[in-house]
Amino acid sequence: MKLVVVSAGLSVPSSTRLLADRLAAAVGRAAAVDAAVDAAVDVPVDVQVVELRELAVEIAHFFTNGFPGKALAAAQEAVAAADGLIVVTPVFSASYSGLFKSFFDVLDNDALVGKPVLVAATGGSARHSLVLEHALRPLFAYLRAVVVPTAVYAASEDWGAEGLEGRIERAAGELAGLMAGLMSGASGRSGAGASLPAARRGEGGGLEVVPFAEQLAALSPRR
Q1: Do the Cβ atoms of 120 and 88 come closer than 8 Å?
Q2: Phi-psi region of 90 (alpha: psi -120 to 50; beta: other; left: phi over 0)
């Protein structure tokens, strides 16, 4: 399973990157537990980290010329090909950072459709924790991703305190479960056409197009 971690931390070291790394490690542990229970999902988790601070210039250029640089194009491809995402942003002005939003603005509109996403954020005060629900969750719902129920916020006082580790493990377990479910479902399908159970098949086994007029007639009330 390919897990891509998008971190919008700006400093080095970065608490945003630290939270991202802890979440990724927890997803790996949760996936190992799932694999021990169900051999059908015994696929190692391959983690790739996308540091947005390294792409800031290319993202800005993309907005003005419409073409991604080499590193940005690689990041876009990695996100599109991922089986699951962890996205972590620092909180600026009670919302996600501009760099974080800009990266998802330059993705293809369909890149995240149906993709499991774990949202997380860091901030200096616990008072901003609802940013997860009023900013990040709506953003990824709009992009038609599948956002895991548990989002993770880490304020400065959370590091080393009780509670954060539990939220990390719970959210990671939810993401690993969704990713394993997708992998298990994919292995259970027999072919490319199996995802279209309602499609009509012709005599040669190929898909047959149903005329629109015929579909409308089928929906009309019978007299």
Answers
A1: yes
A2: beta
What's the token pair of residue 89? 């942003």
DSSP type of residue 161: S
> Among residues 48, 74, 80, 82, which one has the least CA distance to residue 183?
82
Pairing label, strands 95-96, 84-92? antiparallel
pLDDT band per the 50, 70, 90 thresholds, residue 197: very low
pLDDT at 191: 43
Residues 175 and 191: their CA atoms lie apart, in Å, by 26
What 3-state class would DSSP assign to 222? Answer: coil
- Cα 29–Cα 31–Cα 35 angle in degrees, nearest 5: 120
- The dihedrals phi and psi of 30, each to the nearest 5 degrees, come to -65, -40
Residue pair 99/93 in contact by the 8 Å Cβ criterion: no
Alpha-carbon gap, residue 51 to 67, rounded angstroms: 19
Higher pLDDT, 135 or 39: 135
pLDDT tens-digit map of 140-150: 999 999 999 99
Residues 6+ apart with CB under 8 A from 74: none
